[in-house]
Design goal:
By secondary structure, the protein is an alpha+beta fold. Helices cover 58% and strands 9% of the residues. α1 (3-55) crosses α6 (172-210) and α2 (67-80) packs across α4.
């Protein structure tokens, strides 16, 4: 995602922010909102990644504290032609992950403790590769700033609910209602349009980086299934940040397909299956990547590995990142 689209996105959200300011305080409110939005854009450019990491209580890890996870990120970063990002772990039972940072030189990959316990090594590599694809495409800057501004629009709309809109411009109650309901919805639609496109592209590029589209597809299926059962309380309190994650972390995701910031997981899996067929990786469906036919070779970032069939034949390659 190029810098032009980044600028267009920020301009649209800034204009929306100014429109809400106008409904609250007229031209003066619009000018104040513009100045606030400009300051927020500048602040978010430099600090949005730190804000998101702090919001989710993420802690940095290194080669000493998490050697296998850190080594995985390092190897996949090299395969993607990227600088080594910082690596963070969130104490959260829901399996999920996101990337953040204003550019590849200042990027972070964050994973939950839940995902480390849920996925196999190969599946986790697919997820990490997906997040590295976001970094390579500069999606991280777009979506962290989008989440920051969208959250601010919602807060400003709530401010208008308590203090009311301008009564002398003819808008009155209608303007206030529009501000309260339509502004956050519009911000969400902007997030939706950008996020859906970037997720498909990151799936494709991530599959290329890890050389294992079926492993990424299997990971998506596991994460999506768990995300509806295991709440992510921080995401529920800050829904504007949900678009950062690889799979929608909000518990009501099944009920809002029309306005979800993430594409349908089944559609993403179907595309990854198609990539596997195009690239000559045959033998299993994405939903059953580990139970491959006996003797099938899987090409991943740690070299070629041969699997048997069924749980009893799984070797060291199917273990989690902590052994």
């Amino acid at each position: 995602m190029g810098y032009l689209r980044t600028a267009m996105l920020l301009a649209a959200l800034t204009a929306l922010f100014m429109g809400v300011g106008f409904l609250i305080g007229g031209q003066g409110g619009m000018v104040i909102a513009f100045l606030v939005a400009a300051g927020m854009n500048l602040f978010a450019y430099w600090n949005s990644d730190k804000m998101v990491l702090r919001m989710y209580g993420a802690q940095p890890v290194d080669a000493g504290s998490a050697p296998e996870l850190y080594g995985m990120v390092r190897e996949l970063s090299q395969a993607a032609g990227l600088p080594m990002p910082k690596v963070y772990v969130m104490q959260n039972e829901q399996p999920n992950a996101f990337a953040t940072g204003r550019n590849p030189q200042n990027a972070t990959v964050a994973v939950t403790t839940g995902i480390l316990r849920t996925l196999s090594r190969e599946e986790l590599a697919g997820v990490v590769a997906h997040e590295l694809a976001h970094i390579k495409n500069h999606d991280t800057l777009v979506m962290t700033i989008t989440a920051t501004i969208a959250g601010a629009i919602s807060m400003l709309a709530n401010f208008g609910l308590f203090f009311g809109g301008r009564d002398n411009n003819g808008a009155g109650l209608i303007g206030t209602l529009a501000m309260i309901f339509l502004a956050p919805l519009a911000a969400g639609i902007v997030q939706m349009a950008i996020s859906r496109t970037r997720e498909y592209e990151a799936d494709r590029m991530g599959a290329e980086i890890s050389k294992a589209p079926l492993m990424l597809a299997s990971a998506l299926q596991k994460i999506a299934g768990a995300a509806h059962r295991i709440p992510n309380r921080e995401a529920e309190r800050n829904p504007a940040s949900a678009s950062l994650f690889i799979v929608n972390p909000l518990s009501g995701a099944r009920m809002d397909n029309l306005f979800s910031t993430h594409p349908n997981v089944e559609n993403r899996i179907a595309r990854l299956n198609e990539y596997a067929r195009e690239w000559g990786l045959t033998g299993t469906r994405a939903a059953e990547p580990i139970d491959a036919p006996a003797g099938e070779t899987y090409s991943g970032p740690w070299g070629n590995e041969t699997r048997g069939r069924g749980p009893s034949s799984r070797g060291p390659s199917s273990r989690g990142p902590w052994g």
